[in-house]
Amino acid sequence: MLSSSTSTLRLHQPTRPHRRHPPAPAAGGTTHLGPSRRWRGPPPAAPPLRARPQRIRAVDAAQPFDYESRAAGLLEERQHLKIAIVGFGNFGQFLARTFARQGHTLLAHSRTDHSALAATLGASFFTDPHDLCECHPDVVLLATSILSAETVLRSLPVHRLRRNTLFVDVLSVKEFPKNLLLSSLPPDFDVICTHPMFGPESARDGWDGLPFVFDKVRVGDCPARRARAEAFLNIFEREGCQMVEMSCAEHDAHAAETQFLTHTVGRMLAMLELRSTPINTKGYETLLRLVDNTCSDSFDLYNGLFMYNKNSTELLNRLEWAMDSVKKKLFDGLHDVLRKQLFEGSAQVPSTSNVRK
Ligand code: NAP
């Protein structure tokens, strides 16, 4: 049986490194391995967090062949994953730095040969995707541009991977890769769609407190596959990310309002070629930073936010309407002043209370 994606938004408390532990045994001595292990606050009778691993070991010692305790052990083993990053550009490399620091084994593949850079991270770079797949990674992480995702995915010899490999994408839109992965991959593959809501610029000082959106679209209902999915999500949880479980459709609705709007305003301001002045206000400096933050991403990325999120066109229309409304308010007021001058011979500007709202 497969766990299906949820339409409910769940905010999970961020946890600190080493705070993730195998689930504590429930009453009756069995261990819960539910579909989600995000930390939701202490259960009433739970032991202190630090004591938990010892309790699991005690269960293992007493019942070495018990199904649940073997599963808990598997969860521990699975903390170190072999991750293949497909699309080793700006964002793929950014993620790889943290994956490497956490001790995961890294493989990488991209259109361009990034082998020298990969070597500095201890990652093995493969120019041929067949060689990459034959290494049997636990996780294949798709980090290509949104626009190239379909071509890249279809170029992968997925038949060379293990039968139930976990595929994860980090594309900044979510419904498109969800449909793509479900329609392109064999049904035995697990699929998690994610969007780290930060990048090399905004998270240069770390990921602590930054939102990480995920949708466990398809995770096979067996301990090993659930443990692998949890181990992958734990990478972000350990860094202190705010873990937000949300359906891909909900993500796209919110992202048009937040991310696409932010990038559009940043790119519009960039067209004005704003410069720093000797009298910058705080607000103006915020605008300058917005230009930097948004325009350092590739135009392909921005274009993908527009092309592959069905909510983006409406947002552009609303933005245009908002600009027109503000202009109209100003010009209507100006019109009132001119009319007074023309017809009443008064050159005085009316007080703001006379300006039509
Ligand atoms: P990007 O321009 O969106 O993607 C660059 C990557 O796509 C590079 O690896 C590039 O290959 C590959 N690529 C582009 N066109 C290709 C083509 N025609 N055929 C094969 N590969 C192609 O920039 P990015 O910032 O690295 O983003 C990567 C992904 O992460 C995107 O889906 C983006 O939405 C997502 N994301 C980015 C951020 C961020 O802050 N940057 C945050 C969250 C999610 P080469 O290696 O050959 O250049």
TrEMBL record:
InterPro entries: 6-PGluconate_DH-like_C_sf, Arogenate_DH_2, NAD(P)-bd_dom_sf, P5C_Rdtase_cat_N, Prephen_DH, TYRAAT1/2, TYRAAT2_C. The keyword Iron does not apply. SUPFAM superfamilies: 6-phosphogluconate dehydrogenase C-terminal domain-like, NAD(P)-binding Rossmann-fold domains. Residues 1-52 are annotated as: Disordered. Residues 1-10 have a biased composition (Polar residues). Residues 81-357 form the Prephenate/arogenate dehydrogenase domain. The lineage of its organism: Eukaryota, Viridiplantae, Streptophyta, Embryophyta, Tracheophyta. It comes from the Eukaryota. It comes from Panicum virgatum (Blackwell switchgrass). The keyword Oxidoreductase applies. GO terms for molecular function: arogenate dehydrogenase (NADP+) activity; prephenate dehydrogenase (NAD+) activity; prephenate dehydrogenase (NADP+) activity. This is Prephenate/arogenate dehydrogenase domain-containing protein. Keywords: Oxidoreductase. Residues 13-22 have a biased composition (Basic residues).
